[in-house]
Amino acid sequence: MKFKLNFILFLTILFMPSFVTEANESVVPYSIEAVIPNNQVDQGSTYFDIEMEKGETQKLEVVVYNSSDEPITIEAQANSATTNSNGLIIYDAVDLVPHDSMSHPFAEIATIAEYKIEIEPQSQETVTITVEAPDESFDGLILGGLYFSQEADESEEDSGVQIQNQYSYALAVQIREAGNDNDVEPELDLLSLEAGLINHRTGLQTSFVNTAPTIIGGLEFTGDVYAEGSEEPLYTRTVKDFNIAPNSEFNFPVMFENQGLEAGDYVFKGTASNGDHEWSFEEMFTIEAEAAEEANDEAVEIEEEEIENEWMMPVLIGLGVLVVLLLVTIIYLLVKRRK
């Protein structure tokens, strides 16, 4: 099982540069490298995967290289891992409020000596991170990340330049208690449902939480929305290779394909499975007429539905009859006048 978890971790959180915005094509001006410690579980990994004794304090080091011909300033942050709505484990949630099930958030046990580092051209600096393991025994994983981003150039900001190249790296830190081989079973719970607007578009926002200190990896995650009593889903969403960080809360939106909200009773059905574990969820929810009208007024790109009012057909038939009678009357009067 440890091999499987490490393999998933390697695929999903191996540090990579993240391009926040790009003004033009250019070379990334800096790079980072973890100094792998002796208590690394896998010496071949490029991220930190360490075992610590309870109550132990350890210093981790990351070398930051400036390969450009200009001085740069790098900001470093220690963040707890969380999960985004696409099933990616991420490390850039600076203001993350940890779920109650997270006993030891990485952001609270890791301290960076200097969070802002100035690096001269063609040189390097070492960032030191102090990690304090919990005093009590802990099962499973403490997962976090070291997030490095390049500070914007003040001269460019002052000159009014709006679009700049910003580059960031995330370096995973996985901590286990040395000698603790207790199995941890993943737990996935549905927290809430709310129909409304998601990024200005109609949909159902569902929230889930993994309450266990372990990664849930390789899931096929599906959510369906049904009208109450119907067996055919109105809307559906499926994401493969969905990964969930330990003790993390996340959203799984099901979009309504630019259709307006309609008042009524509905059922959400969800499944998540990876071959080793499977979860099923089902919960009713109601869309109130007032809430639907308000959301539809604010939504973008709502498709206009065909008018299907019950009175339209009788009205159209009636108008058709009147037109026919009018034509018959006109023809009758013309024929009579000629005689």
UniProtKB/TrEMBL annotation:
<keyword id="KW-0472">Membrane</keyword>
<dbReference type="Pfam" id="PF11797">
    <property type="entry name" value="WxLIP_HBD"/>
</dbReference>
<keyword id="KW-0812">Transmembrane</keyword>
<dbReference type="InterPro" id="IPR021759">
    <property type="entry name" value="WxLIP_HBD"/>
</dbReference>
<keyword id="KW-0732">Signal</keyword>
<feature type="transmembrane region" description="Helical">
    <location>
        <begin position="311"/>
        <end position="335"/>
    </location>
</feature>
<dbReference type="InterPro" id="IPR010317">
    <property type="entry name" value="WxLIP_PGBD"/>
</dbReference>
<protein>
    <submittedName>
        <fullName>Uncharacterized protein DUF916</fullName>
    </submittedName>
</protein>
<feature type="domain" description="WxL Interacting Protein host binding">
    <location>
        <begin position="159"/>
        <end position="296"/>
    </location>
</feature>
<dbReference type="Pfam" id="PF06030">
    <property type="entry name" value="WxLIP_PGBD"/>
</dbReference>
<feature type="domain" description="WxL Interacting Protein peptidoglycan binding">
    <location>
        <begin position="30"/>
        <end position="149"/>
    </location>
</feature>
<keyword id="KW-1133">Transmembrane helix</keyword>
<feature type="signal peptide">
    <location>
        <begin position="1"/>
        <end position="22"/>
    </location>
</feature>
